[in-house]
Design goal:
By secondary structure, this protein is an alpha+beta fold. It contains 5 helices and 4 strands, in the order αβαββαβαα.
Length: 149
């Protein structure tokens, strides 16, 4: 009887330690994800080499380039509003720029507030040049807020 109690306590202890070890980081991840917002990035393309990137995107005036996992990701717009997303996508596709939508979760109140204002401006504007100018400011704001390092 004492052996069973001892083994039971031993297995509970092992289970607790394994659970703590395996899920410790996951709890922090879940807490972090709760404080994020979904943003839609309009991706022009992904490039392996910087030379190809420069050649392929030379006609795009405003763009954001992220270097991740040994690849260059080129974004031409960021929004949280689906109506603005469609408006931007249509503008770029009319310029023969194929767009892929990439969702990202970010956590920054300053950027969120700024983007909300920019999205409202874009919704009220029909002029493509003005919309692209606003989006250029959005991309610059993203770089300022998230790439301060």
């Amino acid at each position: 009887m004492k052996k069973r109690i001892f083994l039971g306590l031993f297995y509970i202890g092992i289970g607790f330690l394994l659970g703590e070890f395996l899920f410790k980081d996951k709890i922090e991840l879940v807490k972090h994800l709760k404080n994020t917002d979904t943003y839609y990035f309009l991706q022009e393309g992904v490039y392996q080499k910087k030379e190809v990137l420069k050649t392929s995107t030379s006609t795009i005036n405003q763009k954001l380039i992220d270097y991740e996992n040994k690849k260059y990701y080129v974004y031409v717009g960021i929004t949280q509003d689906l109506e603005v997303l469609e408006k931007l996508k249509e503008i770029y596709e009319n310029q023969n720029i194929k767009i892929h939508i990439k969702e990202k979760n970010l956590s920054n109140n300053e950027f969120k507030e700024n983007l909300t204002q920019f999205d409202l401006l874009i919704k009220e504007t029909e002029e493509e040049d003005q919309i692209l100018t606003i989006e250029k400011v959005v991309l610059a704001n993203y770089e300022e807020v998230f790439k301060k390092k």
